[in-house]
Amino acid sequence: MRAGLVCLLVATAELSASTAIGQATTRACTPVEEPGPACLLARQRVSHLPSGRLYWLIDRFSNADRARKAGLPTSTVIQAFKATWLFTLSGANWRAKGGERVTQIGPLPIPLAPSYQAEYLRSIFAPGTTAPLHRHSGPEAFFAVDGDTCLETPDGVQIGRGPGNSLLVKAGTPMLLMAIGKVPRRGFALILHDAGAPPTTLTQAWQPTGLCARQLTADQARATAPMINANKG
């Protein structure tokens, strides 16, 4: 069953290019796309989610009008990274007419709740940039337009490489997100949470063991090795 969404409210605010201060924030995105903390692209209230296994479907369109016409009540049109995106919460088999399916992430492990809220974020992290330690009241899914991703949790480490990599973490899991590799990581995140609970809570109850930091060091070592060998030659 699908229900309508309340109006999408996105305010405009100044986007700082300082060190990332949080993976989820009430700071709204601006058209300026520079390295800095995550910002809020869109927020949706969902009374009922579609039945069955739920996925975050990402499609790309030539313009916003076509994307809106192709979407569902659980869809959101996003303008970012010089492209028009349609983000949809639905089953894996649904297709947006006229769009290019980029990826599907899921199934999303959704805790039972009376209603839900979806928050879509944009971030640009230089290699080594991290978000503070935090957890969410619902699952969080990550999609990188480009760049490399490292996510450390008490269960270990997840690593995504190159354009289109995606990761998923369940509700309540403390986490550290870091951009690794050699180029800035540009990406989106979805937090789908209980509408009656705060989406994000900072935590110090768990501390990472440095798995992402070690991966970053290894990436940087591999990047400098060819230059050192070239100089020796």
Q: What can you tell me about this protein's structure?
A:
With 233 residues, the chain is mostly beta strands. It contains 2 helices and 14 strands. The protein has helices at 64-70, 211-232; strands at residues 36-46, 55-61, 75-80, 83-90, 100-105, 116-125, 134-136, 140-146, 148-153, 156-160, 166-169, 176-180, 185-194, 200-202. The strands form 4 sheets. A 5-stranded antiparallel β-sheet has the order 1-6-13-8-11, with no helix packed on it. Strands 3-4-2-5 form a 4-stranded antiparallel β-sheet, with helices on one face. The chain is globular, with a radius of gyration of 18 Å. The N and C termini lie far apart (66 Å). Mean pLDDT is 86; it is low at 1-25.
Briefly summarize what is shown:
The protein is built from two helices and 14 strands; from the N terminus they run ββαββββββββββββα. The chain is mainly beta and 233 residues long.
Task: Detail the topology: elements first, then pairings.
Elements: E1 36-46, E2 55-61, H1 64-70, E3 75-80, E4 83-90, E5 100-105, E6 116-125, E7 134-136, E8 140-146, E9 148-153, E10 156-160, E11 166-169, E12 176-180, E13 185-194, E14 200-202, H2 211-232
Antiparallel strand pairs: 1-6, 2-4, 2-5, 3-4, 6-13, 7-14, 8-11, 8-13, 9-10, 9-12
